[in-house]
């Protein structure tokens, strides 16, 4: 343990603390990025208030997605990749040390993974994958444009096939990890399954990388976020803790009635809600559509029944109790 602590201090203070020079040089960009993370946290904590105001939620969501795509992805080039997970896993397993110094040399990725680690434990993978990932933000914006033009998007794949394909990304992730112990360079090539590098390099790559990028992006618009749901090894890696049933610590709100109602199940573009109303945090992209339904007494059957009862009591001259949602049930998968 002492050796590990000493190595961490060496990474922090050694070699003239080169990382400090890098942070000073990028100070204003880091401040802007830190503000981006703070705003994301505020949005999550204010999700109930936003869900009650659908127009405001739409403005906030698409404004934030545009910022993630343009500022974080194209300007800062702060797009995390599976390599950022492979490197520490390989280093800890082989060299028995965490490459903290290497992460500190990339301040935006360092801050991103600090935020990812916290947000996955608290809210699930959807905060990053659904809001912050530059590539995911771009696909979400394109999907929104198509929905505006066409009014809808093609539905997800058949539920049975969808459920099976969800595990492909984990296979891809573990294959990349396994190969890294044989050849780190080969695993680096394999991470090209992600189109992220092509995005941050603004298509300044060989034609086949660009063609692959276009293919994946079009496919992810036609079949909503299909790359993110079925193939992305980064998404698989950061969602691994969510196989623990008690995570995330802060769950999206549900009613007991949700176990039989199918409205959110049918509405969920990501297919993250099961037929019995449970939200799977490993698939949820935190779009908050289900939370909009949760507070909508014109759409949610639980609230509609309560509203109709109150209106009936008012017409009968009685005093109706204040509207109170039915008790919430456990939505853990």
TrEMBL record:
Its main location: membrane. The chain crosses the membrane at residues 27-47, 59-78, 98-121, 166-186, 207-224. Pfam families: Fer4_5. Keywords: Cell membrane, Membrane, Transmembrane, Transmembrane helix. InterPro entries: 4Fe4S_Fe-S-bd (IPR017896), NosR_regulator (IPR052378). It is found in: Cell membrane. Residues 109-151, 210-236 form the 4Fe-4S ferredoxin-type domain. Residues 310-333 are annotated as: Disordered. Residues 322-333 have a biased composition (Pro residues). This is 4Fe-4S binding protein. It comes from Candidatus Magnetobacterium casense.
């Amino acid at each position: 343990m002492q050796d590990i602590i000493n190595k961490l201090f060496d990474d922090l203070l050694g070699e003239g603390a080169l990382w400090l020079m890098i942070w000073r040089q990028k100070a204003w960009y880091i401040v802007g990025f830190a503000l981006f993370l703070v705003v994301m946290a505020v949005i999550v904590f204010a999700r109930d208030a936003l869900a009650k105001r659908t127009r405001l939620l739409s403005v906030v969501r698409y404004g934030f997605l545009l910022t993630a795509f343009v500022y974080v992805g194209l300007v800062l080039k702060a797009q995390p990749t599976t390599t950022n997970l492979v490197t520490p896993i390989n280093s800890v397993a082989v060299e028995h040390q965490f490459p903290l110094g290497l992460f500190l040399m990339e301040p935006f990725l360092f801050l991103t993974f600090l935020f990812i680690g916290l947000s996955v434990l608290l809210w699930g993978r959807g905060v990053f994958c659904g809001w912050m990932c530059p590539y995911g933000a771009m696909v979400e914006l394109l999907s929104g444009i198509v929905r505006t033009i066409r009014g809808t998007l093609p539905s997800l794949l058949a539920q049975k096939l969808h459920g099976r394909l969800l595990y492909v990304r984990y296979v891809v992730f573990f294959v990349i990890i396994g190969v890294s112990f044989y050849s780190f360079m080969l695993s680096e090539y394999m991470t090209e399954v992600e189109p992220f590098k092509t995005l941050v390099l603004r298509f300044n790559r060989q034609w086949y990388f660009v063609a692959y990028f276009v293919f994946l992006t079009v496919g992810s618009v036609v079949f909503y976020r299909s790359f993110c749901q079925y193939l992305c090894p980064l998404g698989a890696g950061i969602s691994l803790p969510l196989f623990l049933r008690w995570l995330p610590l802060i769950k999206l709100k549900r009613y007991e009635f949700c176990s039989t109602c199918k409205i959110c199940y049918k509405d969920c573009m990501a297919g993250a809600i099961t037929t019995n109303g449970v939200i799977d945090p490993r698939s949820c992209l935190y779009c908050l559509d289900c939370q909009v339904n949760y507070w909508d007494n014109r759409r949610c059957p639980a609230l509609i029944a309560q509203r109709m009862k109150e209106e009936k009591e008012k017409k009968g001259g009685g005093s109706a109790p204040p509207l109170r949602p039915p008790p919430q049930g456990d939505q853990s998968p």
